[in-house]
Amino acid sequence: MGAAIIMARDVLIVAVVLVALVSLRVLVLIRSRGSVLCCLRPVEGKRGWRVGVARYAGGRLNWIPLIGLLPRPRHVIVRRGLVVSGRRRIGTGEFFGFLEGVTALRCESAGFTFELAAGYRALTGFVAWLESAPPGAHLDVA
């Protein structure tokens, strides 16, 4: 019986450490300068929304999932050639009440079609980033 208690304690310690590490990652990502909380969903597989952080880096938008093992961006969206083809309001049941009143933009970049959803301020920043492209950059915003 003593070995089972020690094993349960060890499992509990590992679980607490993992929760602490995930919480630390979330805090660091959200509070990082120039980071914007948003959701991304690839259109091809119709997978669900993933909550993450977008960071602007010159002509790129780096999207990092909020929960994950690797600290590097999962998607790098290049401003040159980015096409924004549509916009829609998110339904109340789509995020299970987590984010309401957000707008999704349908985008395509280098053959990757996705929707990017965020609140009004974050999307205003995204559009400003798109419009601030240097002269001669090809942008297509519908």
TrEMBL record:
Keyword annotations: Membrane, Transmembrane, Transmembrane helix
Pfam families cross-referenced by the UniProt entry: DUF2550
Membrane-spanning ranges: 12-30
InterPro entries membership: DUF2550
Name by which UniProt lists this protein: DUF2550 family protein
Species for this entry: Planobispora takensis
